[in-house]
């Protein structure tokens, strides 16, 4: 059985992780909590030691706008499945967006709101300090400096509530702003073989500084929260047929081949999809195949 180690490793700051990780957004969709528990435990059994999550990953409703039954939070499912957490497991969460029962979905703009979101993550995950926290922003041209907000998170790090910091949905100038305040261990943006290829310059910028680049929607592409796309290029389909794998596995393999600092975080609530995703870490693409995809 292929494990997450087949994808190789990279450092998240002072911690080395397997480049094939797991994204927790989709585990809340199934009203049967036991399925999410099964998927999470199996992921760790298969060598996943980097899980991406957020306090606002919840169903029914939430980011996915799906589901029924009682409210389910990804963080609480992670805690139920994996606590006490195995040594070496890194859980990365994000703040900025929030989901409040009274206000609905909102974006944190004050130090108090960011602290509240950090404390919610701490409580849901059942930890004293968060391994990595990404500041996720809503880009507004001309109005989107992150200096103040990232500074507030750096202060929470200094308090011991956060170990390491990252940024999400950002440009190079945002990363430079953040680096002037505190170390940045990861950048998390949407990116895929057919999505936002103008990100390549940012990926190289991060690689030169030892910063992990963590793309989301690598499988979903333009379908985004809708899930795995079925709109694959002819090149992706051809390579998948040649290797007797799925197009989704080709998309993941390309993601990992593209740069050594890329960490994949495919998410699923389906146990069989989980194993297929992890197996993609062992898929070797030739220079000719990579060139065809580029």
UniProtKB/TrEMBL annotation:
SUPFAM superfamilies hit by this protein: NAD(P)-linked oxidoreductase (SSF51430)
Gene3D superfamilies xrefs: NADP-dependent oxidoreductase domain
Recorded superkingdom: Bacteria
Annotated ranges, domain NADP-dependent oxidoreductase: 19-293
Molecular functions (GO terms): oxidoreductase activity
Protein name: Aryl-alcohol dehydrogenase-like predicted oxidoreductase
